[in-house]
Amino acid sequence: MKINLIVVGKLKEKFLVDGVAEYLKRLKKFATIEVREISECRTVEEEGQKILSLVPKDSWLCVLDVYGTALNSENFAKKIAALNLSGTSNLTFAIGGAFGLSEELRRAASFRLSLSEMTFTHQMARLILVEQIYRAFKINRHEPYHW
Predict the structure, then answer these.
(1) What confidence tens digit (pLDDT) does each residue in 28-51 have?
(2) Residue 92's domain is classified under what CATH number?
């Protein structure tokens, strides 16, 4: 499986850099991972266009969206497993900048995921997302970690 992460901005805090690096390292056992960082733009529309230009043509696109569907870890794992079973092997997750997502990007998404009803910085969202992707692989393989 190939997983693409397209994110706005660079991680600034050492604890976030270290945490994301740890989960990316763990994920390499299950998938090929590529992280593409884009710089913040003046508008969410411009950011959305930049993100969309980096999404591979054959990829399933999930955007992190405050107005998206919230899933627990087990259902997120089931979604990834179902995609894999259906032959979808290229997944892209996009995290917008501090001001959210453009409507164009929301409409282009195959799925809109909300991490929580709480608000997180987009940098924190990156750490939470990579941990949840890792957790999903562990759940789907019935390996210890989840409990």
Answers:
(1) 999 999 999 999 999 999 999 999
(2) 3.40.1280.10
| Inter-residue long-range contacts of 123-127, CB under 8 Å, 24+ positions, other chains counted | 123/9, 123/11, 123/12, 123/13, 123/16, 124/16, 125/64, 125/95, 126/5, 126/7, 126/11, 126/16, 126/20, 126/95, 127/16, 127/19, 127/20, 127/23
The domain of 93 spans: 2-140
Query: Can you read off the two tokens belonging to residue 114?
Result: 């909300």
Within a domain: residue 146? no
CA angle 16, 116, 55 (to 5 degrees): 65
Establish if 147 belongs to a structural domain: no
pTM of the model: 0.95
